[in-house]
Amino acid sequence: MPNQPLDDRGVFLLSQIGHHVSLRFTARLASLGLEPAHFGILTHLASADGRSQQELADAMNVHRNAMVGLIDELEDLRLVRRYPHPDDRRAHAVHLTDLAHDLLPAATAEADAVEEEILAPLDADERAQLIRLLRRASAHAGLPPGVHPGLQRRRRAPRTTSNPGERVVLDRPRAQS
């Protein structure tokens, strides 16, 4: 169909809602001093605390250099600590701090609130069907479950204060001429 309206195209609608969700989720997490990438890593660590940076990078399909930067950011925010790995002296085990354990329920509540806001017009059966269909499309695209592809291209964020909730930028990359 040559003149098919954009709102009749599934990929347009997925992109439109994805962009909207991304903006909403980012704004809600910012109130806690977090970014979506931080939430993803903290969530993964909550289910398997003490993984090495490499194990975490492999599990999340993130380049190890990007993972080091993300762990640095989380360490600056006092949400994770690196300790010598008990089984590999060349590796660091990454552990959630008490602050992270205290912050995760609030971050999860923000994620739940965004999901409720976005999916409000759908009943429980429609939500379950939507999740099944999106998982199938995601698997067909070769996307690893539970991992946002944006993590693979993420650049290190500017350094911030070490207090989640106080997002004061201390240094910012200079614009190139």
Mean pLDDT: 85
Helix-strand string: HHHHEEHH
Rg, Å, rounded: 18 Å
- Strand fraction equals 5-15%
Taken from the alpha-carbon principal axes, the silhouette is globular
Q: Note the gap between the termini.
A: 44 Å
Number of strands: 2
Instruction: List the uncertain runs.
Output: 165-177
Spatial arrangement of strands, main beta sheet: 1-2
Structural class designation: mainly alpha
Helix fraction, binned, reads: 40-55%
Number of helices: 6
The main sheet comes to: 2 strands, antiparallel
Any key phrases for this structure?
single chain; 177 residues; mainly alpha; two-stranded antiparallel ribbon; 6 helices; 2 strands; 53% helix; disordered C terminus
Description:
The chain has 177 residues and is mainly alpha-helical. It contains six helices and two strands. It has helices at residues 10-30, 36-47, 53-60, 64-76, 98-119, 124-140, and strands at 80-84, 92-96. It has a two-stranded antiparallel sheet with strand order 1-2. Helix 1 (10-30) packs antiparallel against helix 5, helix 2 (36-47) packs across helix 5 and helix 3 crosses helix 4 (64-76). The longest helix has 22 residues, at 98-119.
Brief summary:
By secondary structure, the protein is mostly helical. It is about 55% helix and about 5% strand. It has helices at about 10-30, 35-45, 55-60, 65-75, 100-120, 125-140, and strands at about 80-85, 90-95.
